[in-house]
Amino acid sequence: MEIEIREIRPNDYADVLLLWNNELENLNVDIEKISERFKKMNKDENYKTFVASFKNKVVGFITVVQTMALEYEIGYLKINGLAVQNDFQQNGIGTKLLEHVEIFAAEKGLSCLILNSGFQRTETHDFYKNKGFDRLSYCFTKRV
């Protein structure tokens, strides 16, 4: 299966929105909001989104942000979202997206990737463990 990993383009936003809604089961974003957020993110060099394309159709994506932290000299890369279309899962696409951002992080001199994953996504947790991620903490959120 010939998969191309590349930076997101404006004409990819709708496909990423479908993945965000369907695969991550997060319905808090619509096409207007996601387009506006990607426009803002694309202006900030700390944000990157990469898509996996098969026959010119987006079948996966990963979005990351470089952030500072006291415990890491130049910060770390946080994965804010990773999804692969259900019909294309189990074909190594998620692995390719992760490998792409690992290379990206290394080129920037970053030594750590961090992500959050919902409790209910147990299969996804196994995927991350198999890719060398350690479970170190819980993520707490509070709306203000």
Number of helices: 4
- Percent strand: 25-35%
Structural class assignment: alpha+beta
- Secondary-structure element string: EHHEEEHEH
Query: What's the helical proportion of residues?
Result: 25-40%
Q: pLDDT average, as an integer? A: 88
The counted number of beta strands is: 5
Task: Walk me through the structure.
Helices cover 33% and strands 28% of the residues. The protein has 144 residues and is α+β, with helices and mostly antiparallel strands. The protein is globular, with a radius of gyration of 15 Å. The relative contact order is 0.15. The mean pLDDT is 88.
List keywords for this structure.
144 residues; alpha+beta; 4 helices; 5 strands
Quick summary:
The protein has 144 residues and is an alpha+beta fold. It has helices at 13-22, 31-43, 93-107, 122-130; strands spanning 4-7, 47-54, 57-69, 72-84, 113-115. A 5-stranded mixed beta sheet has the order 1-2-3-4-5, sandwiched between helices.
